[in-house]
């Protein structure tokens, strides 16, 4: 896990829900498969995404959210082919966030919990529509 500083922002004063953000305001840092050029710009929940190549067909993307809530994603069937993208990051994410992208056919998220919140991480596999 990175030692990058984070802070907490209350997103719902009625429920006390808080969101973990990096110092620059990014909500997620995703590392993995390089996305198609249009992918981050077409995600309706993302205000900005800054990708940095980290290897052959690999990148790290700092994701800044356009909104803090998203609709529940309908259940989908996992296609019978390898995932088009595989990303991972710290803290947590959910299937609804990734499935909100209009080009995502199926999203599979694994949430891995550590003994301390700083040890929590996630892996998402994305299948894009043909």
At a glance:
By secondary structure, the chain is mainly beta.
Describe this structure in words.
By secondary structure, the chain is mainly beta. It has one domain (7-128). 4% of the residues lie in helices and 46% in strands. The strands form two sheets. It has a six-stranded antiparallel β-sheet with strand order 4-5-3-6-8-7. The mean pLDDT is 88.
Please state roughly what percent of the residues sit in beta strands, choosing from under 5%, 5-15%, 15-25%, 25-35%, 35-45% or over 45%. Answer: over 45%
What is the count of β-strands?
A: 8
Number of helices: 1
Helix content: under 10%
Domain count, please report it: 1
> Whole-number radius of gyration?
15 Å
The span between the termini is: 34 Å
Unreliably modeled segments: none
User: Secondary-structure element sequence?
Assistant: EEEEEEHEE
Helix- and strand-based class?
Answer: mainly beta
Query: Given the C-alpha coordinates, what overall shape results?
Result: globular
Give the biggest sheet.
6 strands, antiparallel
Biggest sheet strand order reads 4-5-3-6-8-7
Mean pLDDT level: 88
């Amino acid at each position: 896990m990175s030692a990058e500083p984070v802070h907490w922002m209350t997103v719902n004063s009625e429920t006390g829900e808080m969101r973990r953000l990096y110092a620059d305001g990014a909500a997620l840092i995703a590392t993995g498969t390089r996305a198609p050029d249009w992918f981050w710009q077409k995600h309706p929940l993302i205000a900005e995404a800054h990708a940095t190549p980290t290897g052959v067909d690999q990148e790290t993307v700092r994701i800044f959210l356009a909104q803090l809530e998203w609709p529940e994603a309908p259940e989908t069937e996992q296609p019978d082919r390898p995932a088009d993208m595989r990303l991972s990051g710290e803290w947590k994410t959910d299937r609804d966030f990734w499935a909100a992208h209009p080009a995502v056919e199926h999203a599979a998220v694994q949430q891995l919990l550590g003994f301390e919140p700083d040890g929590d991480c996630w892996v998402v596999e994305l299948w894009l529509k043909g």
